[in-house]
Amino acid sequence: MGVVLRAVLACAALLVGCSEPKGPAQTSAATDHVSIVHRNCGLRSYVGETDVAVRCLWYSNERSKRFQLPVAILSKPHERNDNTSVLVYIAGGPGDGFQTQADNLEYWLDWYGGSPLEADLLIYNPRGVPGSKPYWYCPEYDQVSLNVMSEKVGFEEEARRAAPVLHACMEGFSARLQAMDLPNYRKLSDFSTEQQARDILGILSALEYEQWHLWGVSYGTRVALKASQLALLVPEQSAKLTSQILDSPYPFNKGVLHEWAALQDNALRLHERNWAKFTRDLSLAAGNDERLIEYLTSFSSFEHLWDSVNAALDAIESEESQKGVNVHDSRLYFHVENGFRHEIATDEQQALPVYTTDHFTFYMSRSRLAALMYFVLYNASLHEQFYAALYELEQLKTVRVSPKNHNINTLLSLFLHSSFDPAFNSFAYFATECTDNPRATAADIERAISQYPAWSEYLTVMQRYDVCAANFFQKTLNTNPLTVDAKLQQPYNVSIPTLILSGENDPVTPREWAEELADTYTNSGGDVTLIRTGGGHGVLHAGWCDFSGMQAWVAHTQGTEVPDTRVAAEQRYCGY
User: What are all long-range contacts of 490-493, with beta carbons under 8 Å and residues at least 24 apart?
Assistant: First the structure.
């Protein structure tokens, strides 16, 4: 939604890795003209160290033959595996890549080998992201983002400078797609959730499994919901689709621009609750900095703390402006070591500036602090450090020479490495979100501003520079750009058992979304289990739900194990 940091020259999006994959002759060219080609997994250290078998493939189909997706299948020895069922992991994003890269496969080998899961595990890379072919990128967008975050500019100036670069990248990529002359060419909507769901069904249809289980996380839940919906149209697929696990669900009717303010407001409310518990525990704990305790407990609420720190930023900026302090000498200017500088870039990514930048430089402003506030909610272990970092920021009012702010620097390092992670493709994100979601009307924005006046400036700017309103998206869909793609609407497929997991501190897909989705299934007669956990976004990966419960879910939904109804679902499928 809108223009984001990581967004001054006009550029054309580049496509790389378009050559045909090397490997044995293609197989499984079934009725959908699917092509499965074997590929090298790239694993070295794990050869002979595990009894888990790994099979790596390239997938493509005749409808979109230029898109080639890497697939990896993990299997256990026959005595530990029924060899007839598969669990498909659908990553979040949209835009997350390198799912089947060797380093990532080593993580999955550890997890899968130690888990009781008996079904095969299938991991794949979505179209248009690092690791897939073609992979597309625009170094100029990353560069302008790196530049602007180090400058003392406001949120609107960030958007104003990033917007033309982002628009040029998206239009350039759209032109390249057209030049590729793809069958059934649909421009940027080739990255819609519907197309990605068809990829999953195509992969599964090319393999000989009798029972399919979908496991989506965040945006991946939307792909799972669409795939299960599409499977209803094909009897052979519907008969094999057995269950779905939706971790931190992203329903069809969410994600519109005007909802952004509600998510920000929800983030502040989550901090309010977490901060109250933190300060209570802080005052009881021994060994804490007495000045930190005194400072934090002097505020009656997180809102008052938040307002005080933002006022401190304003005061520092005003004072330094009056004195003519250079931005590089500002107390709000931070240097953070760039860990990507020491990594070896893939051939496709060598032009990305994140691999050649020695340090991240960052000027702390109100809008960037708000982004950091939102970011730390992803990981509960960062909350305490964030509140201590707010204390450090406030102290900069009276410190004339910037100290080594341990907590601020640590959080900024995590934030910046996440924001500029080469595994993420911002353009695949925009292509998907802008295709899937309806445009916010002026009336929508006005209502959101009325309800959340604190975020009015942000909403106004985001609407003004909304890349989703660009002509290349309006031309993509043969519908009114103010309405959602008709193919991404309910009803959902309620004919299969559905497990929904939701964290109480989720800032991205809040618990209300999960509860609303569960109610929709229940009211439609669906078999749905909703488990509310602690933690934030991504319940399973954050450890708030035991992975071992997935085998219990798979066995139950396949009918190979009768669940003990005396044990609560939380215990059966989450281990608590």
Answer: 490/252, 490/253, 490/520, 491/229, 491/524, 492/225, 492/228, 492/229, 492/252, 492/520, 492/521, 492/524, 492/526, 493/225, 493/228, 493/229, 493/231, 493/232, 493/241
